[in-house]
Design brief:
Radius of gyration: 21 Å
Structural class: mainly alpha
Helix content: over 70%
Shape: globular
Largest sheet: none
Low-confidence stretches: 6-12
Number of strands: 0
Strand content: under 5%
Distance between the termini: 91 Å
Number of helices: 13
Order of helices and strands: HHHHHHHHHHHHH
Length: 299
């Protein structure tokens, strides 16, 4: 006589909070948060009097919208990350099933709710940021498939949009044309920063048809293009600040640009190996110039 059947019940995989935080990539939150801070400086408002609104804006630009964009990107790049970064939460299985997509959707909805708390300008900017994040990573547009357009969208979203949004929200109106122009120039410069980030993914991008600039142009040419994108807008900012009667700020931006040019010479010797090093040195100088420009533009 057969004994009783024994059934093994497997527990459903649980979503780990630590894995969700890793999915949202806190290390990427700094650029849009810093750009929002530049907008605060350019607005000329009293920081203490507007502290709650500023804190809400920083929460929105960093942990929420930027975190959401990272979740969206990781979900639609899970097959690429399985080659480039197999230890990421989704390809490693630490975020199981379709939870990566669910987190991206949830963060999108919460971001829109927070954006509504920043008034009409803040909500409109949040909608635009959310749309850009999804069309950058998700089919059918998937802008990141082309390094020229994808990096442009990313740079403008990370640097220009938060900067302009902060000025518009805190001044309750359209920002000054000079602020918009400088914010756009720094967003264009961020195109080069995004290109440097693509060096770590050349193998996976090549296999899955993502035409990043390192894939299209090869590492040496892509590095030169990235340097041009980073340097030229800053040179224009120097000229504009001087023309607008801000010589001290113009000298500061010129100084950080000259320092970057020296670092770029080293970067070009080994773009793939030195891209992370430049991200920790040259980009620090880049964002310092952003803040110097923002302070000079304050009314």
């Amino acid at each position: 006589m057969d004994g009783p059947a024994i059934f093994t019940v497997r527990a459903a995989p649980r979503l780990q909070p630590a894995a969700v935080l890793e999915l949202l990539k806190p290390v990427t939150w700094f650029p849009p948060m810093w750009a929002f801070a530049c907008g605060v400086a350019a607005s000329g408002v009293n920081v203490l009097d507007n502290a709650p609104l500023i804190a809400l804006g920083i929460l929105l630009t960093g942990p929420m919208v930027c975190g959401m964009s990272q979740a969206v990107n990781d979900w639609y790049d899970r097959h690429v990350d399985a080659i480039n970064e197999p230890n990421r939460p989704i390809p490693s299985g630490r975020i199981p099933g379709r939870w990566g997509l669910y987190v991206a959707i949830a963060w999108t909805l919460v971001s829109l709710a927070i954006g509504a708390g920043l008034g009409a300008w803040g909500f409109a900017a949040t909608v635009l940021a959310v749309v850009m994040a999804w069309i950058y990573s998700a089919p059918p547009l998937r802008l990141k498939q082309n390094g020229w357009w994808g990096n442009l969208a990313c740079g403008l979203s990370y640097e220009t949009l938060p900067w302009i949004t902060a000025v518009a929200v805190l001044s309750a109106g359209a920002p000054d044309g000079r602020v918009v122009l400088v914010a756009v120039l720094y967003g264009l410069g961020a195109h080069g920063i995004m290109t440097l980030n693509d060096f770590k993914s050349i193998e996976g991008d090549t296999r899955f048809g993502l035409r990043s600039l390192p894939v299209i142009l090869g590492a040496p040419r892509a590095a030169r293009v990235a340097c041009v994108f980073m340097a030229v807008p800053q040179a224009v900012v120097v000229a504009l600040l001087a023309a607008w009667g801000a010589p001290v700020a113009a000298l500061l931006v010129a100084a950080v640009l000259l320092a970057q040019l020296a670092l770029m010479r080293k970067l070009l010797r080994d773009p793939r190996g030195l891209a992370p090093w430049y991200n920790g040195t040259g980009i620090t100088l880049y964002v310092a110039g952003m803040m110097a420009s923002a302070v000079a533009l304050a009314p």
